[in-house]
Amino acid sequence: MPPRNKVFELPQDVREQLNERLVSSGFQGYEALAGWLSERGYNVSKSSVHRYGQDLQEEFEEAMGDVRKTTELARAMSSEGEDESGHLIDATARILQDQLLRISIAMRKAEEDPAKAAKQLGSVTKALADIGRVSLSQKKWAKELRVEVAKEAAEKAETSMATQGMSRDAIDAIKRDILGIA
To answer: Which domain holds residue 48?
Structure first.
């Protein structure tokens, strides 16, 4: 296994500044970035910065692709009108679950303190549980809404049919059909 990239040994705030500089420069100017680090007392080669930058660029482009997909999905869902059946929430939950899975895999691959990784994994697990609860609540709400709409439709139909002179048996049969009662 090759040695760990020196960039990962930088303090978190310096690495975050480097990330910002990499993104804002369009992932170019590695020699200048290595010089910038050297000015701050960190001996990181241009090659190390370049390898780190390439990996960050891949992650960045993948994340931006996901953002574009999510935006298009949300746009498509909102164009369909009201989202009574919760398709948008379900789609969002699936995207979040995918991202959380990626985070867990990345944490396993990272060479970090096991206690820190365990704490982060706990946060990911909690987030997944929260997503599950939101999705279940939304589905329960959608089902209750469908039942309520069916009841209102049955009541309106009953009133209309009664004024048309239909028999009680016929009205009850139609109401059962609307409500889905055998």
So the answer is: 1-57
Tens of pLDDT along 17-43? 998 898 888 889 999 999 999 999 999
The secondary structure element, H or E, covering residue 139 is helix 114-163
Q: How many domains does the chain have?
A: 1
DSSP alpha helix (H) spans, 9-113: 12-24, 30-39, 46-79, 87-109
Sign of CA dihedral 138, 143, 145, 146: positive
27 occurs within a structural domain: yes
Please give the span between the terminal C-alpha atoms of the chain, in angstroms, as a whole number. 66
Tens digit of each residue's pLDDT (9 = 90 or more) over 100-159: 766 666 666 665 566 666 677 677 677 777 877 887 787 788 888 888 888 888 888 888
CA atoms within 13 A on the CB side of 169: 0
Upper half-sphere CA count for residue 57 (Cβ side, 13 Å): 14
Domain assignment present for 107: no
Place of tokens 């090659």: 47
Q: Is this structure's pTM higher than 0.85? A: no
> What b/e sequence results for 76-106 when a residue is b if at least 16 CB atoms lie within 10 Å of its CB, and e otherwise?
ebeeeeebeebebbbbbbebbeeebeeebee
